[in-house]
Specification:
five-stranded mixed beta sheet; 7 helices; four-stranded antiparallel beta sheet
Length: 291
C-alpha cells in the first residue's frame, strides 16, 4: 500500500521530468529560431526585399503533423503551437501586416487571424473584402484574410490577379469537428513564386444570360458567388490537374460555358480530418447559381 510520502515522491519525479522536457523544448525552439534567422540573412544577402510566403511548405508541415500526431494533447492545440512557430519564423524575415475583411464577423475573424498567424502579427482592419484585395495588391509583402460566404454581396475576387494580389491558402487547413477558429476564409498575398505547388487552382468565372447547373457534378467547387441582374460571378476551386479547356468543357456539360475564366491563385487542399465538413457549403453555393 502506497503512502503519502511515496505519492509525493512520485509527483516530484514527474514534475522534475517536466522541468527537464521544458528545458529541452526551449533549447530546440531557440535552435529552430537560429536556423530561421540564418534563412532570413541568406535571403537578405540575395537581395530579397519582402517576406517570402511558402504556403505549400507550410501545408506539408501540417500534413506531417497530422500523420505523426498521437497522444492526449488535442490536434488543434498542437496545430496552433506550430502555426505560432511558423509565423514567428516568417517575422524573422521581415515585418508584414495582415489585412482583415471588415464585412465579416469580427470575433470570428480575430480568432482565425490569431490562431493561424499568432499574436505578434499586426492586424489591419479593412472596410470589406475588396478593400483587403486593394491593400494587399498595393503592399510590398502583406497578407489578407477574407471570409468565405456562399453568396457574396459583391464579386470582390474581380480585383485578384496572378500579377497582383492572389489566393494562396484556404482556412482552416485542418478541418476538425468543434475546432476553435473555424471561420472559412481565404488568404491572399502578392504573387508567390511559380515553383509553389498547388493542389487546387482558383478561377474568377462569369456568366451572362444562360447559367450553368450543378457544377459540383462536374468536379468544380463554387467557393463563393454573386448574382446580378445580368448573370452570375463565381469563384471556382478546381483540381490543378485540369486544363482550362477541361474546365470550359465541365462548365458546358453543366449547362453553359463562362464568358470569363481567369486564374486568380490557388492553394494546398485542406485536410478534412474527420469527414466531409464542406458538403453543405458546396451544395448551397451550387444551388444558388440557378435560383
Amino acid at each position: 500500500m502506497s503512502t503519502t510520502t511515496d505519492r509525493e515522491t512520485s509527483l516530484d519525479g514527474l514534475r522534475h521530468r517536466i522541468d527537464e522536457l521544458d528545458s529541452q523544448l526551449h533549447a530546440l525552439l531557440m535552435e529552430r529560431a537560429q536556423v530561421g534567422a540564418g534563412i532570413a540573412a541568406a535571403r537578405l544577402a540575395s537581395g530579397a526585399e519582402s517576406v517570402v510566403f511558402q504556403p505549400d511548405r507550410e501545408a506539408d508541415l501540417m500534413r506531417h503533423l497530422v500523420e505523426r500526431h498521437e497522444g492526449v494533447l488535442p490536434l488543434a492545440t498542437v496545430e496552433h503551437l506550430w502555426r505560432e512557430l511558423i509565423s514567428a519564423s516568417l517575422r524573422l524575415q521581415g515585418d508584414f501586416q495582415l489585412h482583415l475583411d471588415g464585412s465579416a464577423d469580427l470575433l470570428g475573424m480575430l480568432d482565425l487571424a490569431r490562431f493561424h498567424f499568432g499574436f505578434s502579427c499586426e492586424l489591419v482592419p479593412g472596410a470589406d473584402a475588396a478593400d483587403v484585395v486593394g491593400s494587399v495588391a498595393a503592399s510590398d509583402g502583406d497578407l489578407g484574410l477574407i471570409a468565405l460566404q456562399d453568396r457574396a454581396d459583391l464579386p470582390w475576387w474581380r480585383g485578384l490577379s496572378t500579377d497582383g494580389a492572389e489566393v494562396i491558402a484556404r482556412l482552416p487547413f485542418l478541418v476538425l469537428d468543434e475546432r476553435p477558429a473555424d471561420m472559412p476564409a481565404l488568404v491572399i498575398s502578392r504573387s508567390v513564386a511559380e515553383t509553389v505547388k498547388r493542389d487546387t487552382l482558383v478561377f474568377d468565372a462569369r456568366w451572362t444570360g444562360v447559367l450553368p447547373g450543378n457544377l459540383m457534378n462536374e468536379g468544380l467547387e463554387v467557393v463563393s458567388f454573386h448574382r446580378s441582374a445580368s448573370g452570375v460571378d463565381a469563384l471556382l476551386a478546381v483540381s490543378a490537374h485540369l486544363s482550362e479547356d477541361e474546365i470550359f468543357k465541365a462548365c458546358a456539360d453543366a449547362g453553359a460555358e463562362p464568358d470569363v475564366l481567369r486564374l486568380v491563385g490557388g492553394y494546398s487542399a485542406p485536410i478534412d480530418v474527420e469527414g466531409d465538413a464542406d458538403d453543405d457549403f458546396d451544395a448551397a453555393a451550387s444551388e444558388g447559381l440557378t435560383e
